[in-house]
Design a protein that fits this description.
alpha+beta, Jelly Rolls, 3 helices, eight-stranded antiparallel β-sheet
Length: 228
């Protein structure tokens, strides 16, 4: 009975997510197809390794590969980005690397999660041209999986960052219109063919609304119980 429940859980979770503002969902189990039904399939560029990751398979990148998907066409500047990552800071220190995002580094608009070589931490960022609401997180254990969630509320102008289901930091910034990015959402990169990731990525979700703390915790629990 327990095995049947665990097998059904991902299907039930997915059905619930489809009706809750889900823009894209990439399981990365052998391909880069979008499981949300919104047609945001990715195109594999280079030769990332599809291997056993956090839940089933995911992709491991060496800094030369990326998976550009479609533009997510954000209708508001509310957004939530969820991703499982694993990396080693020693291999990331020399340069900026982006785990995933849409047009958010450089003089552009967008959002994403990556590594800052300046501050030596994992960052989460919502950005409009030269203005950014940036959060940084020290102390993430090397070579272990972490569930990272970035949320942005356009009304309150608050950007929040969650690590492993727990709200770690937030910032109230300026008015950011992150709908302006005309670049593709990219796994291992920023949508401008820049800053590919070094490390592993699995189970990515993007919503067109701000996830609430209890929803982030529930996602963490659901993933841990049975994956997406």
């Amino acid at each position: 009975m327990q095995k049947i429940v665990i097998m059904l859980l991902p299907l039930l979770l997915f059905a619930q997510l489809k009706d809750s503002g889900l823009l894209g969902a990439w399981r990365l189990d052998g391909n880069a197809n979008d499981w949300s039904g919104n047609g945001k399939d990715g195109t594999i560029v280079g030769d990332p390794v599809n291997e056993a990751c956090k839940f089933g398979n995911g992709y491991t990148f060496d800094g030369n590969d990326s998976i550009p998907c479609a533009n997510l066409s954000l209708s508001t500047n509310d957004v939530s980005l969820c991703v499982w990552i694993k990396c080693d800071s020693a291999t990331l220190e020399a340069a900026t690397h982006c785990a995933c995002g849409q047009g958010y580094s450089g003089n552009t608009t967008g959002f994403g999660i990556g590594w800052s070589p300046t501050y030596k931490y994992i960052f989460m960022q919502a950005r409009e041209v030269s203005t950014a609401d940036n959060l940084g997180f020290y102390g993430l254990a090397n070579n272990q999986w972490h569930f990272l969630v970035l949320t942005r509320n356009g009304t309150t102008k608050k950007t929040k960052g969650y690590v492993d289901g727990v709200l770690r930091d937030s910032v109230v910034g300026t008015t950011l219109d992150i709908t302006g990015s005309n670049r593709k959402f990219t796994i291992s990169g920023n949508g401008y063919n820049m800053y590919p990731w070094i490390g592993s990525v699995d189970e990515i979700l993007v919503f067109n609304r701000e996830l609430q703390p209890h929803e982030v915790r529930q996602l963490m629990l659901n993933f841990t119980a049975g994956g997406m």
